[in-house]
Prior knowledge:
Elements: E1 6-10, H1 18-39, H2 41-48, H3 51-60, H4 69-81, H5 86-89, E2 91-97, H6 104-114, H7 119-139, E3 140-141, E4 145-154, E5 159-167, E6 172-179, E7 191-192, E8 204-205, H8 212-221, H9 226-239, E9 248-251, E10 254-257, H10 270-273, H11 280-292, H12 297-302, H13 308-320, H14 350-366, H15 371-381
Helix pairs in contact: 1-2, 1-4, 3-14, 6-7, 8-13, 14-15
Amino acid sequence: MIQRGIATFTLDYGKCPKWLFDRMVMLGREMIRIIVAEEGPDAFIRRIGDPVWFQSLGTVLAFDWNASGLTTILTAALKEAIRGEERNLGIFICGGKGKTSRKTPDEIASWGMRISLNEKNTSALVYNSRMAAKVDSALIQDGFQIYHHSFFFTKNGAWTVVQQGMNLEHQSARRYHWHSAIAKDLIREPHSGISSPVTIPSVLNMTAAKSEKNRELSNELVAQSFGTLMKDINLLRRHFSPLSRMVSMSGNGNQLTLLELENKEFYTHPVITEDFSKSKYLEKILSKLCDEQPENYEKLVATEGVGPKTIRALALVSEVIYGAAPSYEDPARYSFAHGGKDATPYPVDRATYDETIDTMKKYVEKTKISPIEKTKIAKRLRV
C-alpha cells in the first residue's frame, strides 16, 4: 500500500561515473522488462509513484541510497533504458533535470502524436504534469526549489510524477511523488509516498485538508472587483501590527476586526516582512484573476502567471482579515524508509519491509545478468 508523504535527502555533488550509469541502464532495462511482462506497464508506473519502491530500485541499481543524485540519475537511467522500446513496453518517460524538465509538456505532446493518443487524453497528461510542478512550487511553500521534474505514463492513462527540489539553507533535497490513482484531486493532498524525518518550521501548505476554507475564500476574493481586493491587501500593509493583540479599524463605515494571531505556529508571520501591495507584477496577476474569475481554486492555481507570491497574498488576506487559517505544518512527517530500528519515528513495518525486499529479489533473480552481479545485489538488499 502506498503511503502519503515526501522524501528528503542530503544534497549530492559531482557526476555519476559513466561505468556506473551504463550499468544502471543495463540492469534497469532488465528490471523494467520483467516487471512489465509479469504485472503490466500500469503496475510499473504505480510502483514508481511509491518513494520506498523508487528508492529501493535505485539501491538495486547500485546508486547511493540517501543521496539527492539518486532521483536524477535513476530517472535518467530508466529513460535511457527504455529508449527505442517505449511502444513495446507501453511506458513513456518525459522530462528530467534542469532545462530538460521544462521540455516535459512538449515531450508528452510528441509521444501523444507518435502513438496516436487521443488529443483530449494527451492534453490531460500535459495538464497534470504542469499542475504537479505548480502545486509543489506554489501551494507547498517549504523553501525547496524544484529543479527536477519527470513524468511517467502509459497509453492507458496511468501516470506518475517524480520531482525534486533543493534547499541550500538546510543542505537537503526533497522528492515529491504523485500517482494518478491517488491524485484524483490535484489540489487537495495529491501526493503519494512516505514522509521525511526532516521538517521545516512554518510551511504554508495550501494542499492540506486544513486549508480547505482558506482555498475557498482565496477564490472568493478574486470573484470580487480588483479594487475591493486591493483594499484588503493594503489594509494588511498599513494596519497589521503587532501580531499578538486584536487590531480594530474602521473601513467603508463598518467596524473591521482583524484576527488575533498567537505565536503558536510561527515566530514571525510572513505578512510582517513582505509588502504585497507594492508589487506591480502581483497587482497585474490579481487584476487578471479578478477579470477572469476562475470558477474554483484549481483553475485559479492553473492560471498563467500565478505563483507562490500570489498564493501567499490571497492566503494571508483570507487568514488575517477573514479568519480562515491555512495549514502551516510541513507535510513531511516521517522517515522515507520503513521506520527506525529504535522505533523513531515509528517501529519498523516488517511486513512491508520484507515485501519490498522479496519483490526486488524476485525480479533480480529473473534478470539475465551474471550470477556474480545477482549476488552483489542480494547483499545490498540483505537486512
